[in-house]
What does this fold into?
Amino acid sequence: MRAVSAEELLRQLREEPRYRRELAEILASDPEIRLALIQGALREVATKQDIERLTAYIDSRISDVDKRLDILSARIDDVNRRIDDVNRRVDDLNGRLEDLSSLVRASLVAIVVTLASTILVPLALKLLLP
It folds into this structure.
């Protein structure tokens, strides 16, 4: 068997999944190596306490968001009430403008009738009474 350099061994492990599997089986069969691998993996795994802390943090953030949403909802309700009030005022102004428009029309008719009678009555009298 020929001697294989470390670089050649690493290259073969990278390229051949079968070699990696065999190496993993060899390493996993040794109790000391298996223990070292498990301890290394455990450093990366979340504990029950980690998950409980994360759950508590997420719950508190959700509670904060709920409070902010309640405040926003109250503000939106206030804005809607203000908009409704403005709409009522606009409707009231529209009614007043319609009343004013009717009054102006009636006044115009009265002015036209007055002018017509002022001009037509003396003219009619001149024509009828020579």
Summary: The helical segments are 6-15, 17-29, 31-42, 48-128. The radius of gyration is 48 Å. The CA atoms of residues 51 and 57 lie 10 Å apart.
